[in-house]
């Protein structure tokens, strides 16, 4: 996972490695203008609750250029999962190999990208949750 300059919802600059916190993560790249992104966001919020006991984080990285739109979206939909905004959307997408949205990356605790999913998905579907738990468990102990 490359180091990317990000901004949190409070407007503070952070780096992607600090944001990941050395834990495995499901990292969703999205934008407020992307209809499939908006549709899947509630299931990502549910996934965050389902995977938290396993030590797996669910993170949303917005590639919006208007930070206020992101903050309004998060408030409107009551999202509590960690959301950050890329300083340079095009740089972030290129660095992560993302060509379309939504795209979700599976990031190991060591920061390596283990795989990805392109397109909308019901992230809270029981089969999807089992698949994710299995994917991360295959990489060894999850909790640091």
Automatic annotation (TrEMBL):
It is found in: Cell envelope. Keywords: Cytochrome c-type biogenesis, Disulfide bond, Redox-active center. Signal peptide: none annotated. Residues 1-141 form the Thioredoxin domain. SUPFAM superfamilies: Thioredoxin-like. The keyword Cell inner membrane does not apply. Pfam families: Redoxin. The keyword Transmembrane does not apply. PANTHER family: THIOL:DISULFIDE INTERCHANGE PROTEIN DSBE. This is Redoxin family protein.
């Amino acid at each position: 996972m490359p180091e990317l300059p990000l901004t949190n919802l409070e407007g503070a600059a952070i780096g992607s490695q600090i944001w990941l916190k050395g834990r495995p993560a499901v990292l969703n790249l999205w934008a407020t203008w992307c209809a499939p992104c908006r549709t899947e966001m509630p299931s990502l919020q549910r996934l965050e609750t389902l995977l938290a006991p396993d030590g797996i984080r669910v993170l949303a990285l917005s590639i919006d250029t208007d930070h206020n739109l992101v903050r309004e979206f998060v408030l409107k939909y009551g999202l509590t999962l960690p959301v950050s905004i890329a300083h340079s959307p095009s740089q972030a997408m290129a660095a992560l190999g993302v060509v379309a949205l939504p795209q979700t990356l599976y990031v190991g605790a060591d920061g390596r990208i283990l795989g990805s999913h392109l397109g909308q998905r019901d992230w809270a579907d029981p089969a999807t949750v089992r698949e994710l738990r299995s994917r991360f468990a295959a990489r060894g102990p999850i909790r640091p």
